[in-house]
Amino acid sequence: MPYRGSDVWQVPLSRDFMPHFEQVNGRQNLYVDGRPFTVLAAEIPWWDLIYGRYKQTETAYDYLYPAAVKIGLNALKVPVKWSMIEPEKGIYDFSYVDHARDMAEKHHLKLVLNWFGHYASGDGTIYASLTGNLYAPMYIVEDEATYPRAVDGNGVVHHNAASYDYEPIIEREIAAFRAFMQHIKQVDSETHTIVMIQVENEIAVFGVDRKNPKMWRDHSPAANKRFADHGFSDDLTFSAWDLSYNWIRRITDAGAEIYAIPFFHNYVGGKIADWMVGGAPGEDVHTYLQNCPHISFIGVNSYFCAEWRPDNSCAQESEASVGELREPLIRYQVGRNLPAVTEINSGATPLTSRYAFIAVGEFGVPIFAPWALTVSYPESDQPYVLSDGSLANGAFALRDTYSSLSKALPQISYYATTDKLKVFMSRSPGQRFSATENVNGFPVTVSGRNNGQAIVVHPAAHEFLVVGYRVSAAFKDPIFQWPTMRKLRVQKVYWAGDHWVGDGEPEYYVDQTNTTLDVDLDTPQAVLIFW
What we know:
Elements: E1 20-24, E2 27-32, E3 35-36, E4 39-40, H1 54-57, H2 64-71, E5 75-81, H3 82-85, H4 95-106, E6 110-119, H5 138-142, E7 149-151, E8 157-162, H6 167-188, E9 194-201, H7 221-229, H8 235-258, E10 263-268, H9 285-291, E11 295-302, E12 305-308, E13 314-317, H10 322-331, E14 341-344, H11 351-362, E15 367-368, H12 395-406, H13 409-415, E16 421-424, E17 433-439, E18 442-460, E19 463-476, E20 489-495, E21 500-502, E22 507-511, E23 516-521, E24 525-530
Parallel strand pairs: 4-15, 5-6, 6-9, 9-10, 10-11, 11-14
Antiparallel strand pairs: 1-2, 2-3, 7-8, 12-13, 16-18, 17-18, 18-19, 19-23, 19-24, 20-21, 20-24, 22-23
């Protein structure tokens, strides 16, 4: 009979089955269906969903859902463009939302929906093209008189960047977002397939030209009046306050009034001012969390590259050390914010899989999500999923990582950030390593090879959990000799709702001379050890 474990493995449940955050073990934890949940996801694209042919192109990404299952994802991040939701003013169409939800349920995946009414990763924020990169509806794009555009510091009007200092566009987006959340409540309030909403993408005024002070704020007449009326003298400070208080606060307040599942932002990893956490004008964690009570957290889009080209592609892959991987998450520990990884390198790099163990184990992130399944960034031409649906490049490393974490995700989530959990890996990619760490008062030595890594959890007494792959873990105790070693139990397991289930035979041996237990985790697995 598989070992059910002592009470230390029974993580607290919630009576609230809606997706929500709850204070548990000294910090906010994401709960879904009454159980702790960590989103292990990747994003899918949006540009093959073509304006004017949204119905015909609705199935463009269907092949990515079974691929996501093969990689071991428990959720997909799915962009939903405002232009799809409201093709004509006041007329709503939720067919793509319903289709994505149906596909997710068919493949036993959760969804994080990305509301794209504003996309600041390119030139312009409401459209980059008028086909697959149209974010705001065409009636907004075509009517500059009713929905004025942002003006840069040189007085140039940017037709593809909306001004959020005029009421008509904010009122229309609030109406559309309310309708969007009303529909989600109607179709999903019992099944909870949709667990979180990302509201907008990488907030900025004009888009990707973030280094140019002339584009640090909107200089339209309405914006200039608000700037003066509220006594601002700094463009960056104004952008953060204006965009958060006058725009995002109102959208998220309206959405939460309808259906209060978690909302979050994602920011560009980087900074353009020493005091600002974020890499674009308007991105400031403290200001957004202060002004937007219904934003649960602000995640970092953290890309590592040793050398960037002028076109923002990566010329030389980064070999970020463990310390470098931790740095963005530490920087985002601002006030009530929960560190989260909402985008990260995709491709063949081992960096992403290493980062997942640190982010989930050490920081307890609610979401970890590389961008994207079919696009490798910042390295190019290394997608996780090929056009025929087969896996390639870094998909196999990500599968090792996600599949091992998934075997004990509630326990890892619960004990993350505490001294009862330690992450073990090499300091830099590819190195062999051996490290001894004190895990809740007990020294554990983990050795690894070929980018192997482990999480060791020691909640109490002689109860241990080791999760990982391509590592061995050593424990030393007087019990590891005859006859007391008969008390030892080593079991390969996975967590099934409220108990452990056997998952095959573990590999281990006892060195009685040195009273040492060695457990070998070659392939992704979770091993329970107790005596």
